[in-house]
Every structure is written in structure tokens, then in C-alpha cells.
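Dear colleagues,

As part of the handover before I leave the project, I'm documenting each prediction I ran so the next person doesn't have to rerun anything. This entry is a single chain, and its sequence is reproduced below.
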Amino acid sequence: MTRCILFTLFFSLSLAAADRLPNIVYIMSDELSFYELGHTGNPYIKTPNIDKMAANGLRFTNALAASPVCGPLRGSMLTGKHAGRASVRANDGGTPIRAEEETIAQVLKQKDYATGGFGKWGAGGRGSTGVPEDHGFDVFFGVYDQVHAHTFYPPYIIRNSEEVPLKGNIGGRHGQTYMHYEVMREGLQFIRDNKDQPFFAYFPLTPPHGMYDIPKDDPAWDQYQGEAWMKDPDIHWEAKNYAAMCTMVDNNLGSIQALLRELELEDNTIVFFTGDNGGQARFRSDEHPHGFFGPNVNPETGVVFRGGKGNLYEGGLKIPYLVQWSGKVEAGRVSDFVFTQYDVMATLADLTGTKVPEDTDGSSVLPEILGESHRKYSHDMFYWEYRGQTAVRFANWKAVQPKPSDDWELYNLDSDISETIDLSERHGDILGKMKAFAKASHEPVRPGTFADPDRTLHERDRWAKWGTSGEDPRKKK
């Protein structure tokens, strides 16, 4: 009898585990770029955990940002809308999504997911219609305004619009409490607290963006012992910090994965790791014209993605993108499937059997993640706009209008990934269709609003980069 009861209990628990919806961990490192990873050949930056994830999971080579800058891409991704219909198109740090717009978190709430965000929000400053706790997040711990995120030593951090003081900090580049450590601590605790129910843990991590500051005793530095370039006095110290910050994010991934194993959640958790927008040519010199770390340069071939953060050429849009799910996603597979961040909502809805709002633009990538897709693109055509620039992709064709007064350019990305040979005059028929799609895709922007016309809380957060006095200390004599 006892054996029968135990068997029945075991069978019931096994069935319940099998029927449980998957946990979702979505990690997005701010500006960690396509060629700044070990598995894409970067000779300087150490990313062993990310590289191991690429070996044990799925690596996409044609994932594209929804916008080439922080705020707009976050607004698009969270609401599943392309840039022509998104409410956040300015990158001023606080433009909000509208009150009635649903986010990924609200979609997952249809199935009672616990939802937490940890890092940089960027889709609405405090006091606006776009704060995360009003858009499905049980908790968001980090910073709402992008400028607030520029320092890792602000005087306070935000939890659901409330200030949480950080001991010994006054803003700027030095302090007692490193903000990113607090963000990761809260995020890991969220996973622990919700291990018995489906959860969505969203980690829009700030590093390596912002001021390039990292504690000298951070474990990331251990991986650079003996590296000759780290000892080279001609290489700027900020470049060395930048590399260590990338490795710190790599260690964060390792910590999350270790926790999932500890809690025996690995088999029922899908983990995404990605960057947010295209690369920025930091630390340029005559020897390194595309930046010391070459974020948009293939280190093996020298082929360059044109442009970078802030524009709509491939260099501004191409992002690293990995997916791991033990037993569900084939290990070591590399996919050239083309998709973009405004497909994330539809993908997670497909994964969880939830419904997306009718006014969204995404298409599920889940069939490709599971190896069941027969498509090459998630859309017939893709659309982008930012600060007067417009771009459309149609299969292997990419059309770009750098500014409204410029002629459209047309490139064949299969043969010209660097976008150097303009084929607009030879293929006017193709360009005409793409221009018509661009015209149909654009709607006048309708951002969210602030309750306080002076945006008092939002402005306070922006000044928190330098403290709470409201004065930039760089201007002090």
C-alpha cells in the first residue's frame, strides 16, 4: 500500500512537472556586440560562459535589433511593435510607452507568470504611463531612465518607482556600492523566490554600457592575468575596464545558469542571451579605425558591418543572440534565420500559449528555435526608422534612406554584407516595393505621457548620474 501511494505521488509530481509551463530567462547586455565574444573570434574579450552557451544551445547569426539605440528598441521589443508604430522612438531616456499598451509581462500574466525585471528599463521614466509596474511586472529593480544608468555608483536605485538608497554613493565614477551587484543579487533572489511557479526573469543589464567602471576586485579580472595587452600602457584604462565588464556579464550568465541547476530548473527553463543594439567603435585609433575591440569587424576575414549604433546599416542592427533549453533546443546548432526584436513577444506567447494584442507586428521565432521551421525570414519585409533614417529589408535586399532628403540606397546582403554597392538604379522595381512598404509602415508617433508636466521624478533620476543636487559636478570650478 505504501509503495502504491508513493508511486502514485511520484507519478503525479512527474506529471505536474511535465505540464508546468517553462520558465523564461531573458538576458540582454547593453551594447555587447556581435564580434565582442570569444566564439565569434574576439582576440581580447573573455566570454567562456557565453561561448559554452553557444556550444550547448542555438546561435543565431542574423538577429537584428528593433532600433539602433537603447530606448526605442526596448519599447519595440516589450510591446511587439516595429519602429513605425512604436510609441518610443526618441532616445532621450524617458519617453514612455502608452498606458493602454501591453508588454511581454502582461501577455505572460495570462498564464499567471511571476514577472521580474532587473537592470535598465528605458521605456518610461518615473511618473509616466510607461513604468514597468503598471505594465505587468511584479517587480522591476534597477533604473528607469537611461541617463541614471550611466553611472554604476548612483545615490539610489529604483524598485517599482520607489527609491532604494545605495550606501556610500554620491553619483559619478566612485562610491561604496556598485549598482550592478545589487541588480544581480535581486534578480537571482527573484528566481529563488519563484522556483515553484512559472517565472519570467528579464535581465536588461547595463554593462558594458555607461561609464566604464568596474571594481578592481571583481572576479572578471582573474581571466586577464597574464594578458600582455592588459599591461600595455598605450592602451587606455577604460578599454581594459570595458573588457572586464564584458567578462563580468559573462560571469553573471554563469551565475544564473548555476542557480537554475541548483534549483533543478534547467530542463524547464529557456534561457536567452543577447545584446541590445549594434556595435559602437569605441577606443578608435589609427591602428584600430573600427574600435579597439572591432565590434563590427569579423576578426577572421576583416569584413565590416557598415555603420554602428545610431544608424540603420547592419552595424547598427546586428546583435548576438543565443538560446539554450536543455533537451528542447539542439546543442551547437547555428541558424542564419533572420528575425528582429519585435518578434520576441510573439515568440514568448507562442511558447506559453498566450495571446498577443491585435495591434502588434511580431512573428513567432519558436519553430526555428525548436528546429521545426522551413522559413528563412520571420517576415516578408522588415521595417526600421530612427531620427529621419528609414530602412526596409526584403529577403536578401536591404534599402536604406539615410535622411528624408537623401535618395534611397539598395544593397544585396548576400553578396555585400558591408553595404558598399548601391544597386538602386539597377533594381528599381524591387526598391519601389520596399519604398511602398516603408510608406505604409510609418504612423505618426504617439508617445505616452507624464502625470507631472515638469517630470520632477524623471529629472531627479537623470541628475542622479552626478548625485541629487541637480548640478553637474563637471561644471564646478
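Residues 32 and 348 are 23 Å apart (CA to CA). Residues 1-17, 473-477 have pLDDT under 50 and may be disordered.

All the best with the project,
I.
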